[in-house]
UniProtKB/TrEMBL annotation:
<dbReference type="Pfam" id="PF01797">
    <property type="entry name" value="Y1_Tnp"/>
</dbReference>
<dbReference type="GO" id="GO:0004803">
    <property type="term" value="F:transposase activity"/>
</dbReference>
<dbReference type="GO" id="GO:0006313">
    <property type="term" value="P:DNA transposition"/>
</dbReference>
<dbReference type="InterPro" id="IPR002686">
    <property type="entry name" value="Transposase_17"/>
</dbReference>
<feature type="domain" description="Transposase IS200-like">
    <location>
        <begin position="9"/>
        <end position="127"/>
    </location>
</feature>
<dbReference type="InterPro" id="IPR036515">
    <property type="entry name" value="Transposase_17_sf"/>
</dbReference>
<dbReference type="GO" id="GO:0043565">
    <property type="term" value="F:sequence-specific DNA binding"/>
</dbReference>
<protein>
    <submittedName>
        <fullName>REP element-mobilizing transposase RayT</fullName>
    </submittedName>
</protein>
<dbReference type="InterPro" id="IPR052715">
    <property type="entry name" value="RAYT_transposase"/>
</dbReference>
Length: 182
């Protein structure tokens, strides 16, 4: 992994992205998005995660995060490990999931191709953390993150998308308690 993609300063916020292997559109169902929301809430309450912004798209997640005590890479590792197992289990147990066999086949195939996995691989390797070292960079990443659902054509205004912190930044209340930046 390039030194450009590591957490150098644990005191600063970082922009990170988790992407589903093969860019598979998993987060088209509410129950899979709720696993992410619950995991983020858990890590805020129990692991020292500081969440400044977030959005769940159909095949990736963007976060702006910090930490109180535990190294960010450890928190992200735990989030990815837990959510990958929970989402794969939810897909496997969802009798309404029309793409169940297809998705599980891909996750298993990706898992076998990577010796770091026990069986399946849900998330792509890495998080590509970008240190947010200036107000200009923070504003740019917040804007980018919150406008993803608008760019995708899902909503006309960022705060109309439920699975994002854009509501909080627009003066409302979102699904997860976050720390507002700047």
């Amino acid at each position: 992994m390039s030194s450009n993609y590591k957490f150098h300063d644990q005191e600063r916020p970082y922009f990170v992205t988790f992407t589903v292997v093969r860019w598979i559109d998993v987060f088209t169902r509410r129950e899979y998005k709720e696993i992410i929301v619950d995991s983020l809430k858990y890590c805020i309450a129990h692991k020292g995660l500081q969440l400044y912004a977030w959005v769940i798209m159909s095949n990736h997640i963007h976060l702006i995060i910090g930490t109180k005590n535990k190294p960010m890479q450890d928190i992200l590792r735990d989030i990815k490990r837990h959510t990958s197992k929970a989402i794969i289990k939810a897909i496997d147990e969802n009798s309404q999931e029309s793409r169940r066999e297809w998705m599980l086949w891909f996750f298993e195939r990706e898992g076998k191709a990577n010796s770091n996995n026990e069986h399946y691989q849900f998330w792509q390797q890495g998080n590509h953390p970008i240190e947010l070292w200036s107000n200009e960079i923070i504003d740019q990443k917040l804007n980018y993150l919150h406008h993803n659902p608008v760019t995708a054509g899902w909503v006309e205004e960022p705060e109309h998308y439920l699975y994002s912190s854009a509501r909080d930044y627009a003066g409302g209340k979102g699904l997860i308690d976050i720390i507002l930046m700047g």
